[in-house]
Specification:
Blueprint (H helix, E strand, L loop, with lengths): L7 E9 L4 H11 L4 E8 L5 E9 L6 H9 L3 E7 L4 E12 L5 H10 L3 E5 L3 E8 L1 H11 L4 E6 L3 E4 L17
Antiparallel strand pairs: 1-3, 1-4, 2-3, 5-7, 5-8, 5-9, 6-7
């Protein structure tokens, strides 16, 4: 863990939407011995491009060399390292949890507290989705564990830079008094 409390690096990599690009990017990380903590990829608002959000452990080697190597890949358009303190991160969790009738109410209450949704109801299980900051998803998953997780799938993190919150300066206009 680094001195400032950050445990990971987030790389947002804009690539041309071409076959094999994901394999080349992930292969580059593997060859260099980097542990990818999370990888999410999907097309952007422009269908010619996809965005890869790659979360890499801080304990790995410095990323400078990796970024240089990524830029050498033919279909990489832009790379941005996102500071977790200055970005918005989200993750989706789908989970099926054991839910016998006598404890189902407790699980439903927990889902409501975390702002999740119940997607399917079975005789002895519920399938639930929750979206949020990775820490929120971690907390929810941990609280569900004692009930018995049957199946679980997380999307991996997606992230964008946090928007600037300062309002533009307003120009004062002097009017005639009177």
């Amino acid at each position: 863990m680094s001195d400032d409390g950050i445990k990971h690096h987030i790389l947002s990599v804009l690539v041309e939407n071409k076959p094999g690009v994901l394999a080349r990017v992930s292969g580059l990380f593997a060859r260099r011995g980097y542990n990818i903590f999370s990888l999410a990829v999907a097309p952007t608002e422009d269908e010619r491009f996809s965005r890869l959000t790659i979360v890499v452990d801080v304990e790995s080697n410095p990323l400078e060399q990796m970024v240089k190597q990524l830029f050498k890949l033919i279909h990489v358009v832009k790379i941005t390292e996102l500071d977790p303190r200055e970005s918005v991160e989200r993750e989706l969790l789908l989970v099926t949890v054991s839910a016998a009738p006598e404890i189902r109410g407790q699980i439903i209450e927990l889902v409501q507290v975390f702002g999740g949704r119940i997607l399917a109801v079975g005789h002895d299980a519920l399938t639930i989705s929750i979206e949020g900051a990775p820490e929120k998803v971690d907390d929810f998953e941990e609280l569900l564990r004692p009930y018995g997780i049957v199946e679980l799938q997380r999307t991996g993190r997606v992230a964008l830079p946090r928007l600037e919150r300062t309002a533009p300066r307003l120009r004062q206009v002097r009017g005639k008094a009177g």
